[in-house]
């Protein structure tokens, strides 16, 4: 079933879905189903699958296609799905993008190839991808220099927006990057430029500030997606103070989960404790929690649960 494609007006929470594995490191398709159901039950607006948090670089091509097919069929058009297609080979990006769209995806997310050093190189990379994919496949630019090592300037982002109408979304994940978000919005307004959707990442760590600077929602994988959903909905209703109060209740756990190097293991362990997946296995090479890490996470979860109960939440 084909859902509506992502567009410049897309807003809300597009959860970055984890990829569940068994304790031996094989794909766990039953947990893929239960995790998909979990995210839907928490009210997410859409999904982003096969992203960096989804451990896409560790999947074989066959596994990639298996996960994509499983999730799209499970969702069955109920919400839009963006598929991460980043790869060193443009031909792989093209093939996976067209396969995803044929199977009902709402758009694709593309991070820049490694080792792009100048604005011209970044522009030419995305221009090539946009021409390969054509005008009918909506593209989300993934700006995540902490992982890609590629800096995308405001100038090159705006030039890409001007030149390629199929670029409809920016996943804003520079760090620190809130000033960049403001500059994209301010310079677009000043030049009467097409306004695109901006969804923010980095675990949602700066969500209130980013929403106030013009973000349209979140594209991240915090293990309590209901907080992201509720906070974004409150901002959308001009109830920013309530949104920030709610966000602050979850902030200690969100900040803890955001740790570089360990965050994915913490997130998967939390999803396991919430009953969404059967195993917290992170495919190697990847982080492994020790006994102290596990106890620390448990204490933070207990504190958060207590605070939410005390406030009737």
From TrEMBL:
Domain of life: Bacteria
UniProt KW Lyase keyword: yes
Protein keywords: Lyase, Plasmid
Organism, scientific name: Comamonas endophytica
Pfam family, one: DHDPS
InterPro entries listed in its UniProt record: Aldolase_TIM, DapA-like
The protein's name: Dihydrodipicolinate synthase family protein
Lineage of origin: Bacteria, Pseudomonadati, Pseudomonadota, Betaproteobacteria, Burkholderiales
Family to which this protein belongs: Belongs to the DapA family.
């Amino acid at each position: 079933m084909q859902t509506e494609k992502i567009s410049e007006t897309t807003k809300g929470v597009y959860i970055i879905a984890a990829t569940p594995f068994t304790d031996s490191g094989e794909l766990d398709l039953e947990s893929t189903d239960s995790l998909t159901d979990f995210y839907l039950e928490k009210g997410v607006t859409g999904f982003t699958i096969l992203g960096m948090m989804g451990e896409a670089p560790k999947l074989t091509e066959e596994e990639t296609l298996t996960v994509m097919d499983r999730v799209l069929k499970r969702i069955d058009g109920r919400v839009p799905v963006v598929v991460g297609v980043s790869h060193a080979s443009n031909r792989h990006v093209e093939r996976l993008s067209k396969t995803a769209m044929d199977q009902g995806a709402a758009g694709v997310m593309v991070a820049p190839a490694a080792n792009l050093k100048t604005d011209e190189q970044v522009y030419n990379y995305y221009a090539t991808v946009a021409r390969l994919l054509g005008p009918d496949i909506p593209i989300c630019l993934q700006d995540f220099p902490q992982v890609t090592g590629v800096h995308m300037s405001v100038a090159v982002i705006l030039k890409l927006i001007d030149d390629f109408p199929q670029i409809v979304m920016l996943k804003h994940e520079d760090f620190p990057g809130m000033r960049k978000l403001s500059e994209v919005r301010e310079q677009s307004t000043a030049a009467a430029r097409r306004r695109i959707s901006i969804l923010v990442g980095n675990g949602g760590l700066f969500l209130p500030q980013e929403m106030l600077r013009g973000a349209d929602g979140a594209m991240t994988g915090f293990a309590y997606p209901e907080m992201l959903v509720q906070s974004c909905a409150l901002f959308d209703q001009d109830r920013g103070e309530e949104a920030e109060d709610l966000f602050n209740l979850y902030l200690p756990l969100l900040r803890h989960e955001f740790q570089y190097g360990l965050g994915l293991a913490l997130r998967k362990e939390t999803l396991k404790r919430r009953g969404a997946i059967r195993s917290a296995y992170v495919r190697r090479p990847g982080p492994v929690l020790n006994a102290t890490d596990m106890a620390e996470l448990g204490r933070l979860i207990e504190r958060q649960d207590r605070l939410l109960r005390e406030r009737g939440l």
